[in-house]
Each structure stands twice: as structure tokens, then as C-alpha cells.
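Something for you to look into today, if you have time. Just paste the record in under my message, thanks.
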Amino acid sequence: MAVCARAQDAAVRIIERARRADALRPDFTSEDLMIVFGTSALLARAATDAAPDLWRRHVAFLLDGLRREAARGPLPVAPLTPQQMSDVLGGLTGQE
């Protein structure tokens, strides 16, 4: 979980930089980025033998959808709260 906390801090800095550059959709949060990291890691692990670079395709699709000009309206649900993020990360890492 300490690694996740450091990654969360880095995510906040990355998002702030992208917002200052007006390159990121305004409703994207650091919790959203952590989910992107987590799902990409799971995909990379699952596809290691069959398609070791598949995660790159997944991330490219995600990045295209995060561009400010890609935002088409409100998202269907609210972002995760910090507690929900902790619960989700615990589930991904098996440390619930």
C-alpha cells in the first residue's frame, strides 16, 4: 500500500501538469489514473505469454479518451472517494 500511496502522489502531479497544459479532460481524477494503472498492470500480467505488448494498445486507447477534446458530456458516475480507492486497490492487490 505504500507503493500505491507514492503512485497516488505522482498521479496528482501528472494530472495537475496535464491540466495546466489544457490537455486533460477536466473530470479526470488521480483516482481515475490509479484505476488506469491497476487495470493496465492486470492486463499486462494476464497477457504476458500470449501478447506481451497488449497493454500498450490498451493505454493508447485510454490516453486518447482522456484528451480534453474527447470529453462529450458528463460521466455516468462520480469519481471514487479516497476510501473507495483504497478498497479497490486492496482488492486488486489481495490486501483487503
